[in-house]
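so my prof wants the structure for this chain in the tokens format not the other one, which i didnt know existed until like an hour ago. anyway here's the sequence
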Amino acid sequence: MSSEVWPLPGAIAYGGDYNPEQWPRHVWDEDVTLMREAGVNLVSVGIFSWAKLEIEEGVYDFTWLDELLDLLHGHGIAVDLATPSVSPPAWFFAAYPQARAIDADGVVMGFGSRGMASHASPEYRSAIVQMADQLAERYASHPGVVMWHVHNEYGVPVGEDFSEASVAAWRNWLQHRYQSLENLNAAWGTAFWGQYYRQWDHVVAPARTPTVVNPAMKLDWARFTDDQLRECYRLERDAIRAHATQPITTNFMAHQSWNTDLWKWAQEVDIVSDDHYLWSPDPDAHVALALSADLTRSVAGGRPWILMEHSTSAVNWQGQNIAKRPGEMQRNALTHLGRGADAIMFFQWRASRSGAEKFHSAMLPHAGPSSRVFREVTELGHRLGRLGELQGGRTRAEVAVLYDWESLWAQDLEWRPSDDLAFRERMRTYYERLWRDGIAVDFAHPSADLSGYRLVVAPASYLLTAAAAENLTRYVADGGTLLVSCFAAAVDENDAVHPGGFGVPLQTALGVSVQEYLPMRTGETCQVDFNGHTLTTDVWTEDLTLAGAEVLGHYRGGPADCAPAITRHRHGSGTGWYVSTRLDLAGLTPVFQAAYADAGLTPAGHPEGLEVMRRYVRDEPDTPAVAPTERPRAEHASTEHAPTADADREATGTTEYVIAVNHRPDAATLKVPGTDLFTGELIDGELTLPGGSTAVVRTQEPITHPQPR
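here's what i got, hopefully its the right format
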């Protein structure tokens, strides 16, 4: 990424959300002093400040923000200036009560939280554009402002809105999408249950009904909601761009937010940024963190991205908010860095004394600068300060995992064959198998160019369009290895079963289709005999119809007893694997080993719990990027979805950096000659990492560039 786009050229950005309006003026001076001590070089300002900036409609007070930006800039701290549209002030809802969001039960969302506005409200849209315009006109030329931050975590907590304005926008959206009621009726299958529409104003939103709402309608509602949120972002972005040239972003929540299709959103921002918070009940939450980081980098097209928020320790909104143990914060940060982040940011700088997030950890906790957390924050800041040479580094992967938000939306609808087979669970389990094998992963949309990958894995492709299936079939024919999990290609883009039945669009690539889904009762298990292994499975089995595939695994017990369970099919120059049941992490091990052999891949062989990542930086200057004002915007997410698997493969003069994170309690060793960037010491072939520690090494070995298959 060129310096035209990255806000802090040659540096890893470090800092977090700063909310000084919560504190007396004298605290600001203490804050900037401690920020410098901690190595902070970037803070996000103004995210929740609407009520302090526009004190009544059309009456603005920027004096405190003028002073704050000058103070930060004077101390060498850059600013990511936010628009405060996530939290309209009390006067706004008093003046425009119709702008409140309404949930599916018809309950009007009240004031006193955040994100409670209707995104379709004309009054809300007018007000956020006016605020963005005022901020950009005033601060576009401020030397301390290096980036703009629109809104906050779109879709959280309010995505869906059933207000009058939203329903009107929904009908307009449908008319644009379908052009005629005949097309809409056909797509939604309204002949079922007598739902046929003859007038546009009879089309309702999928609010609460006596039983299950038409699933095709709900799938379109999810698309509409995503589009509405993105329209609001574009309104603010364009108001800023009329005055400012700095890059503009908004913070995603990859794999943690339901409402946003990030393949599409990534085309709208100058820099991709993400928020990630550990899920406390998960004892291996660092694996989910790695998944989120890889997904964020992938939607960014492989370019460096910003970790806009994570926590120094506990959060405040889970059932049990588990504090991070010593060293865990640094391990989390370095994993994001190793997977492509060039900014490590937190929520928030100083812990709040009041409000809903007073128990949320911060860089400067309630215990103050003498606390363990602040000491670790300072240590991390100093370490990141030594890693500026990594800025702009890319990663490389020869495995792609397919991820489609529309398939997630569809699979999570009601009345599926089993509530126990879930998109996120399958995605995590298949990803974790690759993570534990030390295999670098990109995520990709099913319709993306996959030609640069040796192995493509489809853990949860319930919704698969005919065009995407053709893309996967070509990939196999051209020599790729495709590994597909159960319940795949069940429906098309309208949540309708494909002509011919379940799995038919992938029949050519996989050599199988599905006669019937055979889910199991809760607690029921059966076995699969596979290549000399006995694998235990639960939740799901299928009755397969063979169409050329060889059977490598049979069911033993359960509703599909003796029937094919795992198949392998040669098509063209490649191979298609199908796993028709829900295997756990251990059960997937021999299956992946066999698929790796077909793909010509070898697991890294690192000690269990040692996470090793690599980034590559070109020694020569990067090709200048398109300036933010000139970057084209994609209307749709067709071929724009994928990271470029072959990017930088032929680069010369490339420096390799190894980022190692030891999640083990005991020491682990890694063969990696080079220079330890934290200590400056030369490593003579082997690096020993104590339990819970991290290292970043500039290698001395010649780089062998991965070759396309």
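also thought this was worth mentioning. The longest strand covers residues 610-618.
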